[in-house]
Amino acid sequence: MADCVFCKIAAKEIPSSIVYEDADVIAFEDLHPCAPLHVLVVPRRHVAKLADLDDEALGGKLIQAARAVARQAGHADNFRLVANNGAGAGQSVSHLHFHVMGGRQFTWPPG
């Protein structure tokens, strides 16, 4: 999608702090981190939100990338994975993304 900021990051048209990438997935540091580890894991191809993801293999690749990011950052056994689905759930960019967060104690419910 031409005006999607995450598509532009995935295409490397906008600079970012990339921590993981493969053919289908890219992960980069969040601009406004909420934890010592706060990385966004996104599919390279545009998928607006989790409810629109119909590719099971891509879903698995996103989760495996999130695991790799947490492990690489030293948080393999203690991290939070969050996907907001739609504006009402707090999704601010209409491109599917998982927040991988770690390095501090989290509470439940998240808010």
Task: Please describe what this structure looks like.
This protein is α+β, with helices and mostly antiparallel strands and 111 residues long. It has one domain (5-102): 2-Layer Sandwich (HIT family, subunit A). Helices cover 21% and strands 23% of the residues. The longest helix has 17 residues, at 56-72. The radius of gyration is 13 Å and the shape is globular.
Topology:
Elements: H1 5-10, E1 18-21, E2 25-29, E3 37-43, H2 56-72, E4 79-82, E5 98-102
Antiparallel strand pairs: 1-2, 2-3, 3-5, 4-5
Helical segment tally?
Answer: 2
Order of H and E elements: HEEEHEE
State the CATH architecture: 2-Layer Sandwich
CATH class: Alpha Beta
Which fold name corresponds to the CATH topology? HIT family, subunit A
Evaluate the radius of gyration.
Answer: 13 Å
Count of domains: 1
Strand content: 15-25%
* Whole-number mean pLDDT: 96
- Broad structural category: alpha+beta
Question: Count of DSSP E strands?
Answer: 5
Shape category:
globular
What is the terminal-to-terminal distance?
31 Å
User: Stretches where pLDDT falls below 50 for ≥5 residues?
Assistant: none
How is the main sheet built? 5 strands, antiparallel
- State the strand order across the main sheet: 1-2-3-5-4
Fourth-tier CATH superfamily name: HIT-like
Measured as a percent range, the helix fraction is: 10-25%
Features:
single chain, 111 residues, alpha+beta, HIT family, subunit A, five-stranded antiparallel β-sheet, 2 helices, 5 strands, globular
